## 1
Amino acid sequence: MPSQQPETLVAAEAPANHSDSGGRCWAQAGRVVGGFWGALAATAISPWAAGSAWIAYSGLLNNEPKDNDGNFLC
């Protein structure tokens, strides 16, 4: 009786132009816009920690995927 090998699943690759309007773009928009409002609210609630909130938001923006021109991919 031949041994049965499990099927190998391969993840689908993202399109090269990254211009889809699917969930990835909505997730990126949510992080960018939500992060801005979160930093703004943190500044209003804890003015003494405003610098930390905006530094964290800046780090979030730097980690978002961008194209060669520096624009967000979505």
## 2
Amino acid sequence: MKKTIFAILILSALTLSGCKKPVFTYVHDNVTITSITVTNLGAPDVPDFPGKPLYASVTGQINDETGEILFPIPRKDADKFDITRMKAYASIPLDAKFDPPLTGIHDFSNDFPIRVYSLQTGDYRDYVLKVYFSRY
């Protein structure tokens, strides 16, 4: 019985003393958008509209110097998009957030300012999303 209790105490001591704190904690300070796309809502309320796609999207052209992200929608595809009701999907680094959040449906008829910020360092980067119909 004493040997069993002694063995349990030794194993417990070894288990507790074996835990080490990490030597280096990586701080995420990258606050850039790597890719972003805006999409239509898939026309759920008009299921029988001929030629209306269920899903259409435009990938953003990111200008890191000015912070502008342009979404030129070709004129030939203008009927596929309602820029007052669109969703946005973006890729950002780990531990970064959007302000305001990009979840849900947004009105992109006017410039849409967003901020990407790091939760660990507080660094941030401002962007402006511009969705428009191009001439061609």
